[in-house]
Write a structure and sequence with these properties.
two-stranded antiparallel sheet; D-Maltodextrin-Binding Protein, domain 2; about 230 residues
């Protein structure tokens, strides 16, 4: 579990360099980034796995599949619609990085911040046309290569800091939100519940001729190492 944006970005670079996905073979990867792990923001408290069951939670993609497996009801909608949906009770919560509490004003319509097991994370990237990259002078390429990975990790560190001050601290100090953490037993149970989703991922990737289990094992190993090196502040 990558517990911070910084840990995620470091792991993304490590994974990219190790596996060199063929999807990036015709471009030059300049930048990898992550918003870090998402948290759950709800109107009523969801302090355990059992309390999450049956709640309507805004979630998309793999996150929706994960919380559905845990008993919640995923509801897909654009971020721009979430504030009104929360205020009117269409959904009872949503999963996203903490910046939504201030940036999307969702601290105004939620009361609890819940630290979840690993159900949300994302990786973003910036690439350059490979022919254009190859046309650059060697010294320019070297200058870019010298900073791109290190700078993206540093940017993630700044992002993590802002997630705390401009997200979690804002929600707690300015709107009286309460921080909630599940019991360790529930966290372990949630991981067991989500294991079939990881098994399905391995099967899908393996069917495409890729080393699915090796990739998953590598990600887990790097997550453990990088999350100790770049720990979350919450």
């Amino acid at each position: 579990y990558f517990g911070s944006a910084t840990a995620t970005v470091a792991g993304a670079w490590e994974g990219y360099k190790k596996f060199r996905p063929k999807e990036f073979s015709d471009v030059k990867v300049l930048w990898l980034f992550s918003a870090g792990p998402g948290m759950l923001y709800t109107k009523k408290e969801a302090s355990s796995l059992s309390e999450l069951k049956g709640m309507r939670i805004r979630a998309t993609g793999n996150t929706a599949a994960a919380i559905k497996a845990m008993g919640a009801i995923p509801v897909a909608m654009p971020m721009a619609d979430v504030y009104e949906a929360l205020s009117k009770g269409v959904v009872e919560g949503q999963i996203a990085p903490p910046e939504v509490l201030k940036g999307w004003k969702q601290a105004e319509v939620t009361n609890f911040i819940t630290v979840l097991p690993p159900v949300y994370n994302s990786i973003m990237y910036t690439v350059m046309n490979l022919k254009k990259w190859n046309s650059l002078p060697g010294d320019v390429q070297m200058a870019i290569e010298a900073i791109n990975e290190g700078f993206s990790v540093r940017a993630a560190q700044i992002w993590d800091s802002q997630q705390i001050t401009g997200g979690i601290d804002y929600g707690i100090k300015e709107h009286g939100m309460k921080m909630v953490k599940w019991p360790e037993e529930d966290l372990k149970k949630a991981l067991e519940i989500m294991k079939p989703l990881l098994d399905a991922y391995v099967d899908r990737v393996t069917e495409k001729g890729l080393p699915g289990q090796e990739i998953l094992d590598y990600v887990k190993a790097r997550a453990a190492i990088n999350s100790k090196k770049y720990p979350p502040a919450f």
